[in-house]
Amino acid sequence: MSRYLLSFVAVIGLGGVLTAGQLLAQPGEIDIFNQQDTRVFKTAACTKDRRPVEALYFIVASRSDLANGKSSPSSQLMKEAVDGNWRQIASRLTMEQVTEERFADTYNALLSEMIPLLQQAVEEQSGVSISVSEVNSRSMDQTKDQDVPACS
Q1: What is the DSSP letter of 36?
Q2: Distance CA 19, CA 55 (A)
Q3: Rounded to two decimals, what is the model's pTM?
Q4: pLDDT at 29
Q5: Residue 5 bridge partners (DSSP)
Q6: In a 10 Å sphere around its CB, with 0-12 CB exposed, 13-18 middle and 19+ buried, how is residue 33 labelled?
Q7: Residue 3 — φ and ψ, nearest 5°?
């Protein structure tokens, strides 16, 4: 049965907390992330048991960085960063760990480890802070889905 496992990502280890669209970036500085500016990136990869899984990353760029004249990270940069991040996550999990509720703790722990690395990499490459507010994942079916990765 194919279903989405919805996982809200708590931002851990970045010196801040994601609440009501704001992320405390540095002591004394508030970085604004308006959820209405969310961009969605779709990616697919193979799990460690060689099964295809898809993820949707919901990402918003820092309004304060953009207001300071910095350009939004390019779609190409974001797509490459998201693809690499999801490949790393999927390769460390089985299909069951991605899709089954009973493995939510394992899945969420790995997201909490990997999402800050994605955010850091994008900021280093673009100069703009991003926030990943959500990651939805599901199994893929060769007969129903397009762009299913070959996982043999």
Answers
A1: G
A2: 23
A3: 0.79
A4: 55
A5: 137
A6: buried
A7: -150, 160
Question: In terms of Cα–Cα distance, which of 113, 16, 12 is closest to 62?
Answer: 16
| Cβ–Cβ < 8 Å for 116, 13 | yes
The parts of the chain modelled with pLDDT lower than 50 are 1-28
Residue 68: exposure state from Cβ atoms within 10 A (0-12, 13-18, ≥19): exposed
Contact yes or no for 147/47 (Cβ under 8 A): no
How many CB atoms neighbour CB 63 within 10 A? 16
- Structure tokens of 87? 């490949």
Distance CA 11, CA 130 (A): 11
Q: Hey, is 103 helix, strand or coil? A: helix
Place of tokens 């009973």: 102
Structure tokens at 78: 């974001």
Start-to-end Cα distance in the chain: 21
